[in-house]
Sequence to fold (330 residues):
Amino acid sequence: MSSRSLTIVKTESSAGSWQEAQDKALWAPAAKVLGITYELDTSQSWADVRAQVETGNIRWDILQIALAEIPQAKDARVLEKLDQDVYNSADFVPGSCTDYFVANSLYSTVMAWNKNTYGDCVPRSKADFWDIKRFPGKRALWNEPVGMLEAAALALGNPRDKVYEFLSTEEGRMSAINKLAEIAPFISVWWESGAQASQLIKDGEVDIILTWGGRVQGAIDEGANFGYTFNDGQLGTDGYAVVKDAPHRDAAMRFLKEISKPEYQKNLSNSFPTAPVNMKAFEIAGYSPEKIATMSSAPQNVAVQYTVDPEFWANHGAWAYEAYGKIRRC
Fold:
């Protein structure tokens, strides 16, 4: 492999159109400008790099990772601190980047439904997702707990600005897990990737689903007769980190700096129904009002959502994954 080549590690959940959009809008044009080549690898999660770091046999350079995962990855000492010039924090959505993470997009975990099934009487809240009498039909949840545990807290009647306060107590966490156990027998599919969730929607395989808004909108753009709401959606941030002692550390930093520019951010939102996190992209993009209405970072959509709490998942993630896994296996 060339000394100027990078290995970008994508997660399995990012496969399909989201990976293709990043490649088209970010990776390929940036690599061409910088004269850097790159190859892709796949992992289940950021934790797969731990063995490489511990043995010193490091093959990866850049990790695709969510902001919510950064505290755990940082504590595991598998990430490089980013060079100061990788991004300008003044240009980005507040709180979307850290010393170890640069964001590439905002996304929402939303509730979506099949219009053919529910007609004009549509589900509007997380409590409705749990209401199998008023809203019968095939349901789908992610096979990971992030966003699903919070949905259960909302279904229990907690307002979105109190979700993490509720889940910060053992009683609250157990109530949420028990709420998920209540709906588990009615879950037809525990989807494993965004591509799978999108296909379930396009094929009409499910009637109601909690998944990422970009995947829903993408399926709608391809003809799926689905609706969705940002109400009580979870606002998350996706992006990149550099592996500790990466073999091409300096090239990785230059690459991340390049793809964080608003010109690339603008194009990413034109390649996939996502929302830019570099706010200068809005100034040069010329998005239509209709397109802005589908974006997680549009003011009217931000107002009805809550932001994922990375510290909660750093403190309780291991417990949540174990407890959620038991529910899915039952």
About this structure: The mean pLDDT is 93.
